[in-house]
Amino acid sequence: MGGALLEEADKLLSKGLHPIRIANGFEAACDVATKQLTAISDVVDVSEEDAKKKDNILFRTAKTTLSSKIVNRFHDQMAQIAVDAVLSVVDWERRDVNFDHIKVDGKVGGTLEDTQLVKGIVLDKEFSHPQMPKTMEDVKLALLTCAFEPPKPKTKHNIDVKDAETYMNLYEREQNYFKEMVQKCKDSGANVVMCQWGFDDEANHLLYQSGLPAVRWVGGVELELLAIATGSRIIPRFSELAPEKLGKCGRIRTLEFGTTKDRMMVVEDCPNSNAVTVFIRGGNQMVVDEARRSLHDAICVVRNLIRDNRVVYGGGSAEIACAQKVKDAADEIPGLEQYAYRAFASALEATPIALAENSGLSPIEELARVRKAQVDESNPHLGVDCLQKGTMNMKDQGVFETLIGKTQQFLLATQVVKMILKIDDVIQPGEM
What we know:
This protein is 47% helix and 16% strand. By secondary structure, the protein is α/β, with parallel strands linked by helices. Helix 2 (19-40) packs across helix 10. The mean pLDDT is 85.
């Protein structure tokens, strides 16, 4: 739509209209179009009871969103994952979805069909020692941002070790530091430790000997998510470890993937959060990244429909109805802005023209036919019958998108074009 608006703006500039007048005209026309969108929108039933049904409106919306993406071979499965992820964290009273509780993660390997929704937090980590247990039940979790290593002086220093006795003293002192740290963790009641920093093999061996499973190099974002989900406090110093600062969860288990050595951890049954992770698999990184973008789109659309359950119908019907309204408004404007209004209406019709062209229909004929049908029947739900189902009524075909999404498309395209129109000149590097 932004490209169509720029094309129309170029025609107006060649006629001698000033860019500011075109920009102001586009903004006013966009205001008319968004009001018309609200007027022609329909309310659909999006409730907690409806969401539990098998083929609910949220599922159908997510399925439509994914139909044109790379994941369309598994769009039923992916749509269900997107809906389940949103329903796991939705607050029906406020009609809002906290995206912080939905994590989308991916790993190369397997196929898209192996993508799953995990009721918990998935970490791309494993326990630091290979002989530590792979599953822990009734976990008391300590989240640390302090390193398992002896304290370092802030000034430059050298230590001269001249004999074996001095070396042994130094070794024992270092061991005592490690033992104190491990003991403080055990005294607090923790049975799993997750640390933001790494620790060397000496500390790792002591942790294993003490029966304290540990995970190292956990990122800051993951630590915050774990703190929210498990009710833990992030602890910056070993001296601050206390039973009340520990988090709790039902289970931490390790996932293993086929014959590869890839492992990941899942933190499940968190008391303070219903956080979920969409875990994507794919043959290569490009497929995983594309699936992640597609699922993010579907999740956003489902979230928008829960926030505001008003929809407009597709097939170019909303654009044609808005274009007609903008043209009617242009007839009532005496100034030069009416040219900008008509240009905006022509740009809106670029969407149904593209739909008709991509469906193998004659674009101009189809647009004229739909426009005439909308005026004759006073029905703004008539659009381009791309699938040749025999009806132009998009409500009957079940083709729709959220009112929030369509309104944002109009507003963002208009703002981008306004911004470009206000650029006076572009200086090339060679001209400086």
